[in-house]
Amino acid sequence: MSTEALEPNRRDFLVVAGNAFVAVGAASLLWPFIQQMNPDASTMALSSVEVDLSPVKEGQAITAMWRGKPIFIRNRTKAEVEAAENVDVKTLPDDNARNENLPGDEPGTDANRTIKGHENWIVLIGICTHLGCIPKGQAMGDERGEYGGWFCPCHGSVYDTSGRIRKGPAPRNLEVPTYAFTTDTKIKIG
Ligand code: FES
Q1: With 60 as the cut, is the pLDDT of residue 34 above it?
Q2: Is the CB of 171 under 6 A from ligand 1?
């Protein structure tokens, strides 16, 4: 799916930095039709999106849609990973990993917010945990805040390169959705 195919009012949600493209799987293409059928909760729980990460170079980001939510995917630079790893979790406003792939109250280390062997990739639900705005930081040239992650322009929340809240009114880290690598360059969200 190229950016040209997107409706103007969805562009903010489907920003593709650089020349990257988002490839979505059949499950996500079915989503509009499933929605029209007013599915029950069990149908919604099965929905998933497959994203091809191969065009996303180091330092670039893409945004996919999953269950009507923007999913921020960033291929972090070594410096961004190091910055995320070198944080004392005890100093964070929210020290919880907020990772749907983990069982419970895991500490919010960068390792607990990424997948082992793919630590350069951060995958987040791109909805500010304050009042639900879409933070900036996906597009080239976006304000990213002083921690180099994401910045919510609504009330000034600042997230780091692991998507953890560092300043501002947002109470929780950006959530990591359920996802897994299906190959070295593809993830399945949901
Ligand atoms: S909605 Fe993001 S800071 Fe208020």
Answers
A1: no
A2: no
Which of 129, 154, 166, 172 gets mutated to test ligand 1 (max ligand atoms within 8 A of its CB)? Answer: 154
Give me the number of domains the chain comprises.
1
pLDDT tens digits, one per residue of 113-130? 999 999 999 999 999 999
* Domain CATH code at residue 44: 2.102.10.10
Could you tell me which residue, 103 or 65, shows the higher pLDDT? 65
HEC assignment per residue over the chain:
CCHHHCCHHHHHHCCECCCCCCCCCHHHHCHHHHHHCCCCHHHHHHCCEEEECCCCCCCCEEEEEECCEEEEEEECCHHHHHHHHCCCHHHCCCCECCECCCCCCCECCCHHHCCCCCCCEEEEECCCCCCCCCCECCCCCCCCCCCEEEEECCCCEEEECCCCEEECCCCCCCCECCEEEEECCEEEEC
- Provide the residue range defining the domain that includes 7: 3-189
- Of 2-11, 74-83, 145-154, 179-188, the one with minimum mean pLDDT is 2-11
